[in-house]
Amino acid sequence: MEKTTTIELIEKESIPQLTFRHTEPEVQNPLEIRRQLSIALILGNAQKHKVRLVFDSDSGLKMVHTTIWELDDQHVVLKRGVSIPVDNIIEVNLL
C-alpha cells in the first residue's frame, strides 16, 4: 500500500506560529535545493518573482507561495522577516 502525504497550503503570515525541529533534510539533493533557493532569491529581489516552497514543520508538511527576500546558511527570509530554516525545506518551484 502506498503512503500518501498531505501538504497544507498556508499563508506566509501564519509561518511565525509554526515550530521547527532540527531534522535531517528529507530532500534527495540538498545542494540542488540551495541552488534553487539562490535562483529564487535573485528573481525575488529583481522581479518580485514568487516560488512555491514545501517545508516540514512540527505540525506536518506545509506549502507557501511567496517571494524570497534574503537567504543565508541557516534561513530563508520572506517579507516582514518571516523565516524558514533551510534544512526544513523539501522542495522549491518557481511559479
Account of the 3D structure:
- The protein is of the alpha+beta class.
- The chain has a single domain, classed as SH3 type barrels, CATH 2.30.30.
- Helices cover 19% and strands 32% of the residues.
- It contains one helix and seven strands; from the N terminus they run βαββββββ.
- The protein is globular.
| Order of secondary-structure elements | EHEEEEEE
Percentage of residues assigned to helices: 10-25%
Quaternary organisation of the protein chains: single chain
End-to-end span in angstroms? 32 Å
Overall geometry comes to globular
Count of separate DSSP helical elements: 1
Our count of domains comes out at: 1
Structure classification:
alpha+beta
Task: Just give the CATH class.
Answer: Mainly Beta
